[in-house]
């Protein structure tokens, strides 16, 4: 999760987020090169006192500064398009989770199992344990197995919400009457925090998301006990 003063992206917990971070770094390198080159040229123009009375046209340089930006755009666009299609790819899911946004909490249904559904509310500050995270911890965490293809179906019951978990590289709008779908795979255990990312009313800031990534055996033990409860 992000901490105070942390300016970078969160550590990835899924292959998709790793690819997003790689693309971010690739784009930043290109931007730094462009900024450095343009800054150097502007500095030389400011401090250059030479003039050329006979310079009317420069076709060579005009070809260069037309072709070069086009090549740079291609170097950014190709990895971007590849990643765009990767993010939309849906592999055969092993677990399907249905997420429904409400004002102002999330409800979850494990569609592959009978009668496993619950609501997830933010823990109020006055009820928060010593080691809890204010505005981020919930009373019922969403337990999911690691190294397993997960499909999340996202909708809403009232207004538009947005189900977002930055460490997984997942963000999808929850729209009433519409079912959106995201797919991901978690490659390490841990707690991954997210929040609603669409302004949805007075308590928009108070409907966090907590994904708990566990081993497959731990998930099966939890799901069997939840089914019996």
TrEMBL record:
Decide whether keyword Nucleus is in the record: no
Residue ranges constituting the Cytochrome oxidase subunit II transmembrane region profile domain according to the UniProt record = 1-91
Q: Which GO terms describe its biological process?
A: ATP synthesis coupled electron transport
UniProt-annotated location(s)? Mitochondrion inner membrane
Q: Which cofactor does it need?
A: Cu cation
Q: Where are the transmembrane segments?
A: 27-51, 63-87
Q: Where is the Cytochrome oxidase subunit II copper A binding domain?
A: 92-225
InterPro entries referenced in this protein's UniProt entry, alphabetically: CcO_II, CcO_II-like_C, CcO_II_C, Copper_CuA, Cupredoxin, Cyt_c_oxidase_su2, Cyt_c_oxidase_su2_TM_dom, Cyt_c_oxidase_su2_TM_sf
Topology term for the membrane: Multi-pass membrane protein
Please, which domain of life does this record's source organism belong to?
Eukaryota
Gene Ontology MF: a single term: copper ion binding
User: Cross-referenced CDD domains, in alphabetical order?
Assistant: CcO_II_C (cd13912)
Query: How many cofactors are bound and how?
Result: Binds a copper A center.
Q: What does this protein do?
A: Component of the cytochrome c oxidase, the last enzyme in the mitochondrial electron transport chain which drives oxidative phosphorylation. The respiratory chain contains 3 multisubunit complexes succinate dehydrogenase (complex II, CII), ubiquinol-cytochrome c oxidoreductase (cytochrome b-c1 complex, complex III, CIII) and cytochrome c oxidase (complex IV, CIV), that cooperate to transfer electrons derived from NADH and succinate to molecular oxygen, creating an electrochemical gradient over the inner membrane that drives transmembrane transport and the ATP synthase.
Q: How does it assemble?
A: Component of the cytochrome c oxidase (complex IV, CIV), a multisubunit enzyme composed of a catalytic core of 3 subunits and several supernumerary subunits. The complex exists as a monomer or a dimer and forms supercomplexes (SCs) in the inner mitochondrial membrane with ubiquinol-cytochrome c oxidoreductase (cytochrome b-c1 complex, complex III, CIII).
Put simply, this protein is called Cytochrome c oxidase subunit 2
């Amino acid at each position: 999760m992000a901490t105070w003063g942390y300016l970078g992206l969160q550590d990835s917990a899924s292959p998709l987020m790793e690819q997003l971070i790689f693309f971010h770094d690739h784009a930043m390198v290109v931007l730094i090169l462009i900024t450095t080159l343009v800054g150097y040229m502007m500095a030389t123009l400011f401090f250059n006192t030479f003039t050329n009375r006979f310079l009317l046209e420069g076709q060579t340089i005009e070809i260069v500064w037309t072709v070069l930006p086009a090549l740079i755009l291609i170097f950014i666009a190709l990895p971007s398009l590849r990643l765009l299609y990767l993010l939309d790819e849906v592999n055969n899911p092993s677990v399907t989770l249905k997420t429904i946004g409400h004002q102002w909490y999330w409800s979850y249904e494990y569609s592959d199992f009978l009668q496993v559904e619950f609501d997830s509310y933010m823990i109020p500050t006055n009820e928060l344990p010593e080691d809890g995270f204010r505005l981020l911890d919930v009373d019922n965490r969403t337990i999911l197995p690691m190294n397993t293809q997960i499909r999340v179906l996202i909708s809403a019951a009232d207004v538009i919400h947005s189900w977002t978990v930055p460490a997984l590289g997942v963000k999808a709008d929850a729209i009433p009457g519409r079912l959106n779908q995201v797919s991901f795979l978690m490659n390490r255990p841990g707690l991954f925090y997210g929040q609603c990312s669409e302004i949805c009313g007075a308590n928009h800031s108070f409907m966090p998301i907590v994904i708990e990534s566990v081993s497959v055996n731990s998930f099966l033990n939890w799901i069997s006990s939840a089914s019996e409860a």
